[in-house]
Design brief:
Strand order of the largest sheet: 2-1-3-4-5
Distance between the termini: 56 Å
Strand content: 15-25%
Helix content: 25-40%
Largest sheet: 5 strands, parallel
Number of strands: 11
Length: 241
Amino acid sequence: MHPNMEYERILVVDDERDLCDILLFNLRAAGYLAEAAYSAGEALQRIVDRQSFDLLLLDVMMPGMSGFELAKRLKEDEQARHIPIIFLTAKDTEDDTLHGFALGADDYVTKPFSVREVMARVKAVLSRRKPAPAPTPTAGRDDAKCQGLTINTANKTVCIDGNSIGLTRTEYELMKLLLEHRGQVFSRQQLLDSVWPQDVIVTERTVDVNIARLRKKLDRYAACLVSRTGFGYCFEEEIEK
């Protein structure tokens, strides 16, 4: 493994075993955790069984269920729709390409292709799905603070008027992210990507539940956790009177 590589899991779905072997060899050499499924049905079962993947390399033309049909089913599933998809296919007409993107594809590579091209597309798609790095905190500032609400990043506590309130790890991370970037609206998916581990499968509803719990613990600062309908959540410094 490359020492700085994050261990993204990639599932190659293609009925051509030789092609799968070539892709697996190169993906693993690049530091990815790569596996193969030799039919869309097998891939669907793995994902339904809650195996977590960061990317699918998906052939279109396969016996039985096609890659297009598998993509359609995944995009309709609340817990699988976030998985990026790169289609690998010999179908290179404009209509086929547009259909693939309409199904939510992140990229489309036509056969025959070079392995170098596929690897470049994989890297690009995985880079796009990562949340943007947080701005560097102000030098010398250990705490995030809003009036009487303070986050101590050294001992991982949140205090109101000097009194620590009991938060779970998830609630603390949510509070820290929103307070350090007050005024910035985060979508539910951005919060999931930033706070929850990548190997844990949760839905956007989980964000709503944790925000509701957090509000109950924030006393008079509960109103600062603002919901922006259709967008997500943000922390607003001014408390409405």
